C-alpha cells in the first residue's frame, strides 16, 4: 500500500513537491530520533487544539482580540488548562476559577515569575521594573519600595488633596462644555485625569508643564499598543528578537523615556540640593536609593512602570464603566440617586468622606471590571519548577502561563446572566463580602491574586470613585444629537480598550 502511494506520488510529482516531501520526511525522522525532553513529554499530555501548523504552531488560531479567541479555544479544547504552541513558545492558558486558584494561590510560589522578554528587557532597563522583573530578591525589593512609599493606605489618603484638585480641573472642563451644550470626549478626559493623578503622586507638580501630558500619552501609547501588546511575534520567536525591528524600535522609544526621566530626576536632585523638599515618589526613590541599592536605570524602570501600569488601566475602567452606565439607564439613575443622596445638596464637590457609604458605586466598579478587566490576560506568569497539581495536569518548569481573567468574569457556569451589566449582583450581602477585588474570589480577578497581584487597588479605587461620583453628581449625561448608541467594540494592546471615543453631552443637574 505504501509502495503504491509512493509510486503514484513519484509519477505525478514536480521536483519542488518531491523536495518538500523529502524535507518533511527528514524533519519527521529527526523529530522521532531526538529523545524528547521531560518537559516535552509533559506538555504533550496537556489538552491542546489539534490544528497546529509547522513553525507558527497555534498562532493562526489567535485573532486580533486574543482574550476572546483564547476563551473560545478553551471552551473546545481545555476549559481549565490548555496548551498552545505559540511560535516557539509553549504557553499554558488558564480559563477556570479552580485552575486560577491552583496557579495563583495553592502554587503561587511556583508561578510567581515572569517569562523572559526581549522587549521588556529593552524598555525596562533589563526588566528591572516591578511588573516584568523575574521573581527574586531584586523584584522583592523593587515591589517593597513601591508598596511602602507610594501605594500604602496612608499614602493614598495623604494624596487626597491632589486628587480632589485634579477632579476640580476636570469638572471645570465639563462645566465649560455644558455651558456651550458641546460634547465632551470623556475617553480623553479620563486618560488625562488618570495620568495627572499618577504624575502628581510620582513627580509632584510637573505634569501640566507645557506638552508633558501629550508626551506621556504618546510614550504610553507606544509602550502599550505597539511594543508590549501581548501578541507581537517577537515574544513567540525569541531567537529572532535580537535581529528584529521591534527590539530596535523599543530601543529608540526607550531613548525618549530616557530624555524625559533624566530631566525629571535631575530636576529633583537640584531641588533637593536647594533645600526644596516636596516628598513626591521621585524624592523618595532618590532618598532610599542607597538603602535599596538602586541604580539610576533601576529608578527609571520603576518610574516607567508606575506611569505605564497606572494610567491606561484606570482610564480604561472609567471609560467602560461610564459607557455601561449610559447603555443601562436604570443603573445610571440608581447610581445618580445614591451619589446625590449620600453627598447632600449644594456641595461644591463629592468628597472622599461622602464616598464611604456609596455601596452601589462600589458595585458598579466591580461589575464593570468583571465584564471589562483592563488587563484581560494579566501580565504573563512563568513556572519556576514543575507543578503536578493544576486541576489534574502537570505543568513543566519554564513555561509561560496566561490567565484569562476576562473569561473568568464571563463564565456562564459561575455568573447568572454573565454577559449582562447588573451591579445589583454585588449588592447582596454574601456576594458583596466575597467579591472584594482583593484576589479572594477567583471568578473576579481584575487585579490578579497572590504574590504578583496589583499593589495599587486602594490607589485605583480612590481615583476611580472620586471622578465618577463627581461627574454623576453634577451632571446629567446625554448622547450627542444624531447618535443612537455607544459602541463597545474592543481593541487590544497590553490592555483591552474601547475602540470608539466616548463622546457625551453634559447638562448641569439643577436639583443638586
Ligand atoms: C484599574 C486599574 C488597574 C488594574 C485593573 C490593574 C491590574 C493589574 C494586574 C492584572 C496586574 C498583574 C497581576 C498578575 O500578574 O498577577 C497588575 C500588576 C501591577 N500593577 Fe496594576 N492595575 C491597575 C492600576 C495600577 C496602578 C494605578 C498602579 C501604580 C500606580 C499599578 C501598578 C502595578 C504594578 C507595579 C504591578 C506589578 C506587580 C508585580 O509584578 O509584582 N497598577 N495590575
UniProtKB/TrEMBL annotation:
Cellular component (GO) terms are:
membrane
Binding of heme occurs at: 454
Which CDD domains does this UniProt record tie to the protein?
CYP71-like
Q: Which SUPFAM superfamilies match?
A: Cytochrome P450 (SSF48264)
Keywords noted in UniProt: Heme, Iron, Membrane, Metal-binding, Monooxygenase, Oxidoreductase, Transmembrane, Transmembrane helix
**Keyword Transferase found:** no
Where does this protein act, in terms of pathway? Secondary metabolite biosynthesis
Q: Which GO terms describe its molecular function?
A: heme binding; iron ion binding; monooxygenase activity; oxidoreductase activity, acting on paired donors, with incorporation or reduction of molecular oxygen
Query: Gene3D superfamilies in the record, alphabetically?
Result: Cytochrome P450
Q: Where in the cell is it found?
A: Membrane
Matching InterPro entries? Cyt_P450, Cyt_P450_CS, Cyt_P450_E_grp-I, Cyt_P450_sf
Q: Which residues form a coiled coil?
A: none
Main localization category: membrane
**What is an example of a Pfam family matching this protein?**
p450
Cofactor(s) listed: heme
Similarity annotation: Belongs to the cytochrome P450 family.
Q: What is this protein identified as? A: Indole-2-monooxygenase-like
Amino acid at each position: 500500500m505504501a509502495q503504491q502511494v509512493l509510486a503514484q506520488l513519484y509519477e505525478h510529482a514536480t521536483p519542488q513537491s518531491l523536495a518538500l516531501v523529502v524535507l518533511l520526511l527528514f524533519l519527521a525522522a529527526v523529530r522521532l530520533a531526538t529523545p524528547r525532553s521531560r518537559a516535552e513529554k509533559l506538555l504533550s499530555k496537556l489538552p491542546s487544539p489539534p490544528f497546529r501548523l509547522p513553525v507558527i504552531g497555534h498562532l493562526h488560531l489567535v485573532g486580533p482580540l486574543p482574550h476572546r479567541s483564547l476563551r473560545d479555544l478553551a471552551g473546545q479544547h481545555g476549559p481549565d488548562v490548555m496548551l498552545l504552541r505559540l511560535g516557539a513558545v509553549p504557553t499554558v492558558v488558564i480559563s477556570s476559577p479552580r485552575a486560577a486558584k491552583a496557579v495563583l494561590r495553592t502554587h503561587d510560589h511556583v508561578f510567581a515569575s515572569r517569562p523572559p522578554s526581549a522587549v521588556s528587557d529593552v524598555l525596562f532597563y533589563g526588566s528591572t521594573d516591578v511588573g516584568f522583573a523575574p521573581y527574586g530578591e531584586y523584584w522583592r525589593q523593587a515591589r517593597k519600595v513601591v508598596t511602602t512609599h507610594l501605594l500604602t493606605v496612608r499614602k493614598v489618603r495623604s494624596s487626597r488633596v491632589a486628587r480632589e484638585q485634579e477632579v476640580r480641573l476636570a469638572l471645570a472642563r465639563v462645566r465649560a462644555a455644558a455651558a456651550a451644550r458641546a460634547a465632551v470626549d470623556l475617553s480623553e478626559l479620563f486618560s488625562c485625569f488618570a495620568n495627572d493623578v499618577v504624575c502628581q503622586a510620582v513627580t509632584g507638580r510637573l505634569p501640566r508643564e507645557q506638552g508633558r501630558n501629550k508626551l506621556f500619552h504618546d510614550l504610553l501609547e507606544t509602550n502599550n499598543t505597539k511594543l508590549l501588546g501581548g501578541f507581537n511575534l517577537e515574544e513567540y520567536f525569541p531567537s529572532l528578537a535580537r535581529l528584529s525591528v521591534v527590539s530596535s524600535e523599543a530601543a529608540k522609544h526607550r531613548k525618549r523615556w530616557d530624555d524625559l526621566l533624566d530631566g525629571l530626576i535631575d530636576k529633583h536632585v537640584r531641588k533637593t540640593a536647594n533645600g526644596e523638599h516636596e516628598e513626591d515618589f521621585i524624592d523618595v526613590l532618590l532618598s532610599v536609593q542607597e538603602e535599596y541599592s538602586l541604580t539610576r536605570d533601576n529608578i527609571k524602570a520603576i518610574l516607567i512602570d508606575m506611569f505605564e501600569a497606572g494610567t491606561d488601566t484606570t482610564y480604561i475602567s472609567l471609560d467602560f464603566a461610564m459607557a455601561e452606565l449610559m447603555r443601562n439607564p436604570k443603573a445610571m439613575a440608581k447610581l445618580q440617586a445614591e451619589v446625590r443622596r449620600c453627598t447632600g445638596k449644594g456641595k461644591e464637590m463629592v468628597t472622599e468622606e461622602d464616598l464611604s457609604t456609596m455601596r452601589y458605586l462600589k458595585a458598579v466598579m466591580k461589575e464593570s471590571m468583571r465584564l471589562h478587566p483592563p488587563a484581560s490576560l494579566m501580565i504573563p506568569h512563568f513556572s519556576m519548577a514543575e507543578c503536578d497539581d493544576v486541576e489534574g495536569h502537570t505543568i513543566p518548569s519554564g513555561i509561560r502561563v496566561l490567565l484569562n481573567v476576562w473569561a473568568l468574569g464571563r463564565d456562564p457556569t459561575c455568573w447568572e446572566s454573565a454577559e449582562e451589566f447588573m451591579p445589583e449582583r454585588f449588592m447582596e450581602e454574601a456576594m458583596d463580602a466575597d467579591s472584594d477585588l482583593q484576589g479572594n474570589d477567583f471568578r473576579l480577578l481584575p487585579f490578579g491574586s497572590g504574590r504578583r497581584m496589583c499593589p495599587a487597588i486602594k490607589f485605583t479605587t480612590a481615583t476611580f470613585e472620586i471622578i465618577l461620583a463627581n461627574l454623576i453628581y453634577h451632571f446629567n449625561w446625554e448622547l450627542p444629537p444624531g447618535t443612537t448608541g455607544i459602541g463597545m467594540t474592543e481593541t487590544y494592546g497590553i490592555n483591552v480598550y474601547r475602540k470608539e471615543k466616548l463622546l457625551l453631552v453634559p447638562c448641569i443637574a439643577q436639583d443638586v
